[in-house]
Design goal:
Length: about 270
């Protein structure tokens, strides 16, 4: 006779939502505890708040950080846009500078090609050599007796800016001695006061004058030379007083930078 097997039955003890009674009890107790803790009138509330505050603060930090993400990308986009605008402005400025230099160059070339000159009996000449190709305080130009110029003719940078005079003229070339050429003497006056004075070239681009210590002359004064054309010949750069001698030593320079000019205008001394 076969033996009948007997298997023990297992009590699953299922209850609410298919959970065991123990699990249901734990969930219930957890909910009750949370209600008690977050009830502000409950004494446990302050204790729970202290215990959970680090966690809550961390949550707030991440929440605030997430809120900052859109602002970060917005600020970055604004910076990129502003940077692009600045780059465009710099490029426009560079282009304007190039255009300005181009216009200046074209104007200079046009002036030379058309031999534009001040109003009056001027002859336009090109400078073909200057220091260091020729001695300091001198120029070499491409006009000579064949063009109607002679020794003593005056040399101008413009209609009213006197640079010097011709000292050696050949058939088609001539040498200019600038006002600063050593030993050159001119007689002029201070434009501000009309006081007369004698100026002398001292070489090296320097023009000097010795005047009484009470003579009214200051740095920046313009020295004019009288003639058929009243012309600017020098600008005062320094005034040195020598009280023991009772004189001032006035140091001057040419009105223009010779290194930056390529043409001059000749005016006949006999005009």
């Amino acid at each position: 006779m076969p033996m009948k097997m007997i298997y023990p039955t297992r009590n699953t003890n299922k209850n609410l939502f298919g959970l065991s009674s123990n699990k249901t009890l734990i969930i219930f107790l957890t909910i009750a505890a949370l209600v008690l803790v977050f009830n502000t009138s409950n004494p446990l509330h302050s204790l729970a708040e202290k215990l959970l505050s680090p966690v809550l603060k961390s949550g707030n930090f991440f929440y605030d950080s997430l809120n900052q993400i859109p602002k970060y990308f917005s600020d970055k986009n604004n910076l990129i846009e502003e940077n692009n605008k600045l780059l465009a402005e710099v490029e426009n400025g560079r282009i304007d500078a190039v255009d300005n230099e181009s216009v200046k160059y074209e104007n200079q070339k046009l002036r030379e090609e058309l031999k534009m000159k001040p109003v009056g009996d001027f002859i336009t000449a090109s400078i073909i050599a200057k220091f260091p190709q020729v001695p300091l305080d001198s120029l070499f130009i491409n006009m000579g007796t064949a063009d109607g110029v002679n020794n003593g003719d005056l040399i101008f940078a413009s209609e009213r800016v006197l640079l010097g005079k011709l000292v050696k003229v050949s058939g088609n070339k001539a040498t200019v001695a600038l006002n600063s050429f050593a030993g050159t003497v001119s007689y002029g006056y201070v434009a501000r006061t009309n006081e007369p004075l004698e100026i002398k070239g001292n070489g090296g681009g320097v023009i000097e004058a010795n005047v009484p210590i009470d003579f009214d002359i200051v740095v920046g004064d313009k020295i004019m030379v009288a003639g058929s054309l009243d012309s600017l010949a020098a600008v005062v750069g320094a005034v040195e007083e020598d009280k023991s001698s009772g004189f001032k030593n006035v140091l001057m320079s040419l009105p223009v930078d010779i290194s930056k000019i390529n043409i001059v205008f000749i005016y006949s001394a006999n005009a």
